[in-house]
Amino acid sequence: MEQLFDAFGIDWKLLIAQAINFGVLLVALTYFLYKPVLKTLDERREKVAKGVLDAEEAERKLAEADSVVSTRLQGAEGEAESIVAGARETATQERTRILKEAEARAADVAADADARAKESAARALRDSEREVARLAVLAAEKVMRQKA
């Protein structure tokens, strides 16, 4: 076997050292890069899911508000036409206000979730760049020590 390594110019000690270095690098990348990125993605997924639930809650509240408006309109039908007209105007304004508030809340929730997701992605990218740079410096230092 040693003759085969010699024939191809392979230094088996160096090959074993490189395999060990690769294993250490693989473990370090898994610990410092892969797991934090997965954690960030899970957190982002949870935030997006929370945003969807908040939007559904806002939609439910909007439906409740519509139901309240409908009930108010039905009660006002029996009264005089001037009272009915006033009640309809009030209900329309209330509905518009509630719709605007619900849309604003939904937009705020979506914008907040998007901003947090972008911030988390940017933070993860910066962290991984720092870690890769640090590992590259350590690897270069180790190579320089081995050559010296």
Explain how this protein is built.
With 148 residues, the protein is an all-alpha fold. The protein has a domain at 48-148. The protein has three helices and no strands. Helix 2 packs antiparallel against helix 3. The radius of gyration is 32 Å and the shape is rod-shaped. The two termini are 30 Å apart.
Brief summary:
The protein has 148 residues and is mainly alpha-helical. The protein contains 3 helices and no strands. It has a domain at 48-148.
What features would you highlight for this structure?
148 residues; mainly alpha; 3 helices; rod-shaped
How do the helices and strands line up, and which of them pair or pack?
Layout: H1 2-8, H2 12-76, H3 81-147
Helix pairs in contact: 2-3
Estimated structural class: mainly alpha
Number of strands: 0
Q: In angstroms, what separates the terminal alpha carbons? A: 30 Å
Strand % is under 5%
Mean pLDDT: 89
Low-confidence runs of at least 5 consecutive residues:
none
Taken in chain order, the helices and strands follow as HHH
Residue share in helix: over 70%
Number of helices: 3
Rg measurement, Å? 32 Å
Main pleated sheet: none
Shape: rod-shaped
